[in-house]
Write a structure and sequence with these properties.
Elements lengths: L1 H25 L1 E4 L7 E5 L2 E3 L3 E5 L6 E6 L3 E2 L9 E10 L10 E7 L19 H6 L6 E6 L13 E6 L4 E5 L2 E4 L4 E4 L8 E7 L3 E8 L10 E4 L9 E9 L6 E10 L28 H28 L18 H7 L8 E4 L3 E8 L3 E9 L6 H13 L8 E7 L2 E7 L7 H5 L8 H21 L3 E3 L8 E3 L5 E3 L6 E3 L21 H4 L3 H17 L10 H4 L1 H10 L17 H14 L10 H8 L23 H12 L5 H13 L1
Antiparallel strand pairs: 1-18, 2-5, 3-4, 4-18, 5-17, 6-17, 7-14, 7-18, 8-9, 8-17, 9-10, 10-11, 12-13, 14-15, 15-16, 19-20, 20-21, 21-23, 22-23, 24-27, 25-26
Bound molecules: 2-acetamido-2-deoxy-beta-D-glucopyranose (5 copies).
The site of one 2-acetamido-2-deoxy-beta-D-glucopyranose has 5 residues, from loops.
Family: In the C-terminal section; belongs to the protein kinase superfamily. Ser/Thr protein kinase family.
Protein name: non-specific serine/threonine protein kinase
GO molecular function, one term: carbohydrate binding
């Protein structure tokens, strides 16, 4: 049994040898290299599953060769040197559209051993150009599909096809293209497309023709190159035919898909293109970014980050607040700067409703269309802030229909924001002193005076603490939608417990409303009464308590009203804008009450509760005349006296930061 098997094996071997010797006569054909016993491989070359002959992969400085093992007889005396070949190759760069290198060559060589040959532009065929040209002993013919330009060879700039004799310097070269038989014109071929390319090399003993075409195109009628060559000096008696490929710094996968060879044109077997193995496609081109572009992108990213960082810092700064631990208990009264910023459209001009020495007042709309007024005060002193905030919050708890409700506050570095309810009709002084606004009627005036008297009475006696407003004047009296008077701006208010000693408080207020004893004795409810008296006269006479530009007898309102009374024409002091529509008794009462309240002797001034009673006619005015001591004795608080006495004592005042403003405000008028 074993013997028989051996016999069968031997017979089939003999059969194979006969076959191959037959092939030697006629040539051969490979539609893929799955059965490739007759192929010699050198260097990297290998046959991949599926029958693809791979000469190189994409490793640097690699060479690969494949030869048909049987040499062909090119004995010049006996036969013609002609040969014909048709092969399909593919040059696949690592990425689609990338450069590849170095190329494939069809080689006719006296030896299959090309191990001495170099990679790169030598194609794995030649060893050294000087070496090779000097000696013609190499006996090499190569048809190269070269994808790299080599400067010293004067090669074509782009991938090219060349005929090489003994040397890598081509005797003839051309840009890869094919003649389209149908279009009758040359169409260029991209060697590095990764797609299979057909190559024909025909030599009839005198002329060598090279043709290229894409896989789907028939052999062109016109060759790409046609050159008459006498190969008798190149060829030796026995020559091997095959392929070589190489890589350098530039890389390609070099494949041979199919190959047909014959010594005679008629016997050249056709390739069955449908049976050829498939070529692994190059990886999809990932746009290789140039270093410049990468640099630019990094720069851009950095730029964007910087901008974002700045925006972040800007926003953080924009909305930055000062918040201290002691403020925690006032949490509900604290507004975030951001919400105020949004409510007032960024403290925009359109939202500004007032500008005074204190700071600016903005109208704002909180969510749920709640209208607020935001007073923005600049302050530098952190000192006393704690007490101030405590008082702001206390003020929030004051409840009287004639007070402007204070809703809360916000603190920032160098800035303080007080939030109160918005009063749509503005402040009283705008009606008294601005001729563009309608002058309030006497009824309105007396009603507002009663409102403020009631509010002040509440502050002095009705709240849990005594609250001194310390800055009563027409510009601090706000008018709500029903034209009710509401005492606002508690920027200088002072709190103390009932019965406590107040002597050490600072003298603050507005010139003309400040009681003469303020400097020597400090604040008390009586100084508020004095200011209210000045306010009574202001509203009734339509004049500010002190008008520096007027003549001496008219300059001080208190004095002037008293003079009018002395000359038995008290009513003359009234605001001419009142017209005729007023009650003479009421005007007289209010003027007299104003004089009573501005009495130079604090003890002679009535308390606010009494003032309310006088205004409501619940109590008759005490008996006094313009000649009563203290009446109409206006002793202006001079700036010199203020700066000398007030400022040193201000250090401990919680409202010291406002004093400067206040004095300036008073001075300006
Ligand atoms: C090329 O082939 C060699 C040997 O098989 C292998 O080690 C190498 O990783 C391959 N290179 C690439 C780029 O595929
Ligand atoms: C040819 O080059 C090889 C090495 O590349 C060297 O060893 C040899 O001597 C050279 N031969 C000639 C004739 O220059
Ligand atoms: C096509 O190219 C060949 C060789 O490069 C040239 O000889 C021939 O004139 C060209 N034909 C046309 C139609 O351009
Ligand atoms: C080469 O091409 C020329 C011109 O097309 C043609 O005349 C000649 O017969 C061709 N030679 C071979 C060997 O095909
Ligand atoms: C080629 O050259 C050889 C010798 O150099 C000569 O004998 C032969 O006739 C030439 N063949 C042709 C076709 O010119």
């Amino acid at each position: 049994m074993a013997f028989r098997l051996h016999l069968v094996l031997i017979i089939s071997c003999v059969h194979l040898i006969c076959l191959s010797s037959q092939q030697q006569e006629t040539g051969f054909v490979y539609n893929g290299f799955e059965q490739a016993a007759d192929i010699f491989m050198g260097g990297f070359a290998r046959i991949l599953p599926g029958g693809l002959l791979q000469l190189t992969n994409t490793t640097e400085l690699q060479t690969g060769h494949a030869f048909y093992k049987q040499p062909f007889d090119f004995d010049q005396s006996s036969s013609s040197l002609s040969f014909f070949t048709h092969f399909v190759c593919a040059l696949v760069p690592p990425k689609l559209g990338a450069d590849g290198g170095h190329g494939i060559a069809f080689v006719v060589s006296p030896s299959m051993d090309l191990s001495h040959a170099l990679a790169t532009q030598y194609m794995g065929v030649f060893s050294n150009p000087t070496n090779a040209t000097s000696s013609s002993s190499s006996h090499l013919l190569a048809i190269e599909l070269d994808t790299v330009k080599t400067i010293e060879y004067n090669e074509l700039e782009k991938p090219h096809v060349g005929i090489d004799l003994n040397s890598p310097i081509s005797v003839e070269s051309a840009l890869p293209s094919y003649f389209s038989n149908t279009l009758k014109k040359n169409i260029s071929i991209n060697l590095l497309s990764g797609k299979p390319i057909q190559v024909w090399v025909d030599y009839d003993g005198s002329s060598l023709n090279v043709s290229l075409a894409p896989i789907e195109i028939k052999k062109p009628d016109q060759p790409l190159m046609s050159r008459s060559i006498n190969l008798s000096e190149i060829f030796q008696d026995k020559m091997y035919v095959g392929f070589s490929a190489s890589t350098g710094n530039l890389l390609s996968n070099h494949y041979i898909l199919g190959w047909s060879f014959s010594r005679s044109k008629e016997l050249l077997q056709a390739l069955d293109l449908s049976k050829l193995p498939l070529v692994p496609p190059p990886r999809e081109e990932k746009k290789e970014l140039s270093p410049l572009l990468i640099g630019l992108i990094i720069l851009l990213v950095i730029l964007v980050l910087v901008v974002l960082g700045r925006v972040y810092l800007y926003r953080r700064n924009k909305y930055a607040e000062v918040r201290e631990s002691w403020e925690k208990e006032y949490g509900p009264h604290r507004f975030s700067y951001k919400s105020l910023y949004k409510a007032t459209k960024g403290f925009g001009r359109d939202c500004r409703v007032g500008k005074g020495g204190f700071g600016e007042v903005y109208k704002g709309i909180l969510p749920l269309s709640r209208q607020i007024a935001v007073k923005r005060l600049s302050h530098d002193a952190e000192q006393g802030m704690k007490q101030f905030v405590a008082e702001v919050v206390t003020m929030g708890s004051l409840q009287h229909r004639n007070l402007v409700p204070l809703l809360g506050y916000c603190r920032r570095k160098g800035e303080l924001l007080l939030v109160s309810e918005y009063m749509p009709n503005g402040s009283l002084d705008q009606y008294l002193f601005n001729n563009q606004n309608p002058s309030p009627s006497w009824l309105q005036r007396i009603s507002i005076l009663k409102d403020i008297a009631s509010a002040l009475s509440y502050l002095h006696t009705g709240a849990t603490q005594v609250v001194l407003h310390r800055d009563i004047k027409a510009s601090n009296v706000m008018l709500d939608s029903n034209f009710n008077g509401r005492l606002g701006d508690f920027g200088m208010a002072k709190f103390y417990d009932h019965g406590a000693n107040l002597s050490a408080t600072a003298a603050v207020g507005t010139i003309g409303y400040m009681a003469p004893e303020l400097i020597t004795m400090g604040t008390s409810t009586k100084t508020d009464v004095y200011a209210f008296g000045a306010f009574l006269l202001e509203v009734t006479c339509g004049r500010r308590p002190m008008e520096p530009e007027l003549s001496v007898e008219h300059k001080y309102l208190v004095k002037w009203v008293c003079e009018c009374w002395k000359s038995a024409s008290l009513l003359e002091a009234r605001d001419p804008r009142l017209g005729r529509d007023f009650s003479a008794e009421e005007v007289e009462l209010v003027l007299k009450l104003g004089l009573l309240c501005t009495n130079a002797v604090p003890e002679s001034r009535p308390a606010m509760a009494q003032v309310v009673q006088y205004l409501n006619l619940d109590l008759p005015l005490p008996d006094f005349s313009p000649y009563t001591p203290g009446i109409g004795a206006f002793m202006p608080v001079s700036m010199e006296a203020l700066s000398a006495i007030v400022f040193p004592s201000l250090r401990n005042s919680s409202f010291s930061m406002f004093v400067t403003h206040t004095i300036l405000e008073g001075h300006g008028r």
